[in-house]
Write a structure and sequence with these properties.
Chain A contains no helices and eleven strands. Chain A is mainly beta. The chains are: A mainly beta, B mainly beta. Chains A and B meet through strand 4, strand 5 and strand 10 of A and strand 5, strand 9, strand 11 and strand 12 of B.
Chain lengths: ~110, ~120
């Protein structure tokens, strides 16, 4: 069955460092993959979408890579700030517009 | 645009009662999704619509759940009868498919449902 794995443990980093979050998927080949941020008590907020023919995508301090051979996406936040502390969700599509979400990785950035 | 609007924000109901959750997508978005989020199962896709037509309802847990989209600006998710295990946060999201393909989803603030 289709499976998505994200770092199950929380990631703690120091302000100013680069945070790297991992998303691995198995048993299917998504045409695109999305990353979302979710704060407690709120809905997920869309950050980036990367398509299967794109290796890398950037938006301000965010960078996403998509390796269809490894079946993996990496999400980087450079020069991290305490305000970046949140849960980050990986969401590969499973066919057409249907998308399933990983369990998320909690990121804590310490000042 | 005000974003995706869901109502109510919180709902507490007794087991066996009917619950109706409401969603207004972003104008111009032709895809609408209903998700449910719990600590144990994370975000689960229940059903999604394209141009008001249900495309995939394989995530709807039981016949007690039903969803409708009578027009492009309104959708409902109904649970009848409700059970304690239905307690969760229910999110509605909308999106569109443009010239470059797919785009990200915009989520509403969610409805926190508690069935006692």
């Amino acid at each position: 069955s289709q499976k998505i794995e994200q770092n199950s443990e929380a990631l703690n980093i120091q302000e100013g460092k680069t945070a790297t979050l991992t998303c691995n998927y198995t048993n299917y080949s998504p045409a695109y993959l999305q990353w979302y941020r979710q704060d407690p008590g709120r809905g997920p907020v869309f950050l980036l979408l990367i398509r299967e023919n794109e290796k890398e995508k950037r938006k301000e301090r965010l960078k996403v890579t998509f390796d269809t051979t490894l079946k993996q996406s990496l999400f980087h936040i450079t020069a991290s700030q305490p305000a970046d502390s949140a849960t980050y969700l990986c969401a590969p599509n499973t066919g057409g517009f249907k998308t399933i979400f990983g369990a998320g990785t909690r990121l804590f950035v310490k000042a | 645009d005000a974003g995706v609007i869901q109502s109510p924000r919180h709902e507490v109901t007794e087991m066996g009662q009917e619950v109706t959750l409401r969603c207004k997508p972003i104008s111009g978005h032709d895809y609408l999704f209903w998700y449910r989020q719990t600590m144990m199962r994370g975000l689960e896709l229940l059903i999604y619509f394209n141009n008001n037509v249900p495309i995939d309802d394989s995530g709807m847990p039981e016949d007690r759940f039903s969803a409708k989209m009578p027009n492009a600006s309104f959708s409902t998710l109904k649970i009848q009868p409700s059970e304690p295990r239905d307690s969760a946060v229910y999110f509605c999201a909308s999106s569109y498919q443009g010239e470059l393909g797919y785009y990200g989803y915009t989520f509403g603030s969610g409805t926190r449902l508690t069935v006692v």
